[in-house]
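Late entry, evening session. Most of the bench is empty. Finally got around to the prediction I had been postponing all week. Sequence below, unchanged from the version circulated by S.P.
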Amino acid sequence: MHRIVAKTQLSPNVTRLEVEAPRIAQIRQPGQFVIVRRAERAERIPLTIADANPQTGTITLVIQAVGKSTRELVALEVGDAIRDISGPLGMPTEMIAKGRALCIGGGVGTAVVHPIAQGLQRRGVSVVSVIGGRSKEWVIFEEELKRLGEVVVCTDDGSYGRKGFVTDAAKEILAAGGIDIVYAVGPVPMMRAIANLTRPFGVHTIVSLNPVMVDGTGMCGGCRVDVGGETKFACVEGPEFDGHKVDFDLLMDRLATYRTQEQESAARCGDDCRIGLQK
């Protein structure tokens, strides 16, 4: 059992949990994730390790409540426990040793960018982050990223930071030159747009993919993605890949496979989830 020691609401449907997982906290690396099971027969949910504290033996999980299982997970309170946390899983982030990196996070993807920026900054790499949300209340991890380098905030409605999409700010930064690598994490359309943006600049671009994952070993095959014309298993060979080689159309199609069942399950959740989320 993994006890929850802190809980914070980051945005209307994104919650941060600090959870006891001492062995994972000691060895996790940027880019890796865990698979969480709230209770004995609950769904297995892959979550990026947004941060870790080896001294306290805790890891940070950032959860976007979009379906039944994630709603039940964020309904847990401090003192409650999560049944199983398996990890760290996946391959660590490909890091450059020097130069300047552009980290781009959209929505909850900003929490995934955070450990990457941490790892880069520890290596002495200069980090500039571009993060975005629909409006101010949807912007997360701004203060954490400011400790690691320059941060540009974008909101769709202009209520905070600069008005527009992260792609607009990223284009200006790339045009100014001096960027050696780009890391982009967020909704699939955003990552595809960033990959298309960086291609003519010739800047290596890494994206973190979110296909359906079940066992975390590659055996179920649900996490299959096409990268450079080859089938890859995101849970063991990823979740990060060269964004210029990813077949984003196929990824979006597979993500929609269980959409009807997910919506039906979320609709049945109701008051059993014990939370009132803004949809």
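Two things to note before I forget:
The domain at 100-255 is CATH 3.40.50.80 (Rossmann fold).
The chain has two domains: 2-90, 100-255.
Will write this up properly tomorrow.
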